Amino acid sequence: MKKILLVAFLIALNSCAEKKTKTEDFKNTELNAKDNVDAKKEESPSKELNKAIVLGSYTGKIGSNLEVAFNLPNSNGVIDGFYYYKKIGIDIKVVGTVVADSLLAYELNYKNDTLAILKGKISKAAIKGKWISTQRKKELPFTLEKTDTAITPLPENIEGEYYNDICDVTLTFAKTKGEYYYTYKSNERTLTGKLSFSRGDDLYINLTEIEYAEDYFDVALFEEDPEKENEYAKLKEIGKRRLGVECYYSPGELTIQNYGNAMNYYVKLKDCSEKYIHFKKQ
C-alpha cells in the first residue's frame, strides 16, 4: 500500500513540474512575441499622411528638356491630379500620397495602368525627385517649381463637330484611348490626324499633320535679293512647308487665321479664301 501511495505521489509531482515548465515556456513565447512587435514598431514607424502641406500648380522639367506643367491638389494627404507635356498638352492622370515631405505618385494611362512612378521631396517652393518608367525601367530627374498661375485641365467639351458655313468646311474632334484626333472635311478633301494643344493664357488646338498651302518662300520678293531668291528656290524645290494649323479655342467656337501679310506671308488652308475662318460647334 505504501508503495502504491509513493508511486502516485511521484506521478503527481512530475505532472506539476511539466505544467510549470509549459506555463513558463508559454510566458517566454509571449514575451518574445511582444519584443518582436515592439522591435518592428521601432524599425517601421507608422507613416501618417501629411494632410497639412499645401501643394497646387507647378511647372518644370522631366529630364533635361521635357517641359511639363503639374496640378497636384493635396486632399488630406491624397493626390488626385494631372500633368501634361507642354509640347503635346494632353492631360495625364496622376494619383498618389504625401507622407511628411515626400511625394509618391503614379502616372496612369486611360486604362488606369501605371506608366511611371514619381518620387520626390517637397520644399516650400519646389518638388525634386525621380520619374521612373515602369515599362522601360528608365529613370529621369525632375524639378518642379511652384507657380501662381493655375494649371487647369483641358475643357471637357472640346470633342464634337465644328462648322464654317461660308466655306462649307467641317472640323470634327474625337478622343480615343487618351489621344485626341481631328477630321478636316471640305468640298475638295478630307484630312485626318492627331491634335496637340498649346496651353497658356489662351488655348490653341493644333491640327498637327496639315501642311501649309503656301509658305513664306512662295511669295515673290519685292526687292532684288539674289541670296534670298536662291534660298527660296531651293525651298520651293523641296516643297516642304510648315506643318500644323492652329485653331484659337473659345467655348463652342474655333478661329483659324488663314493667311498673313507681306511681312509674314503664308496661306494655311487652300479650301477657304477667308482671312479668319470661324467655326461654330454644332
From TrEMBL:
Superkingdom to which the source organism belongs: Bacteria
Protein name: Uncharacterized protein
Source organism per UniProt: Cellulophaga fucicola
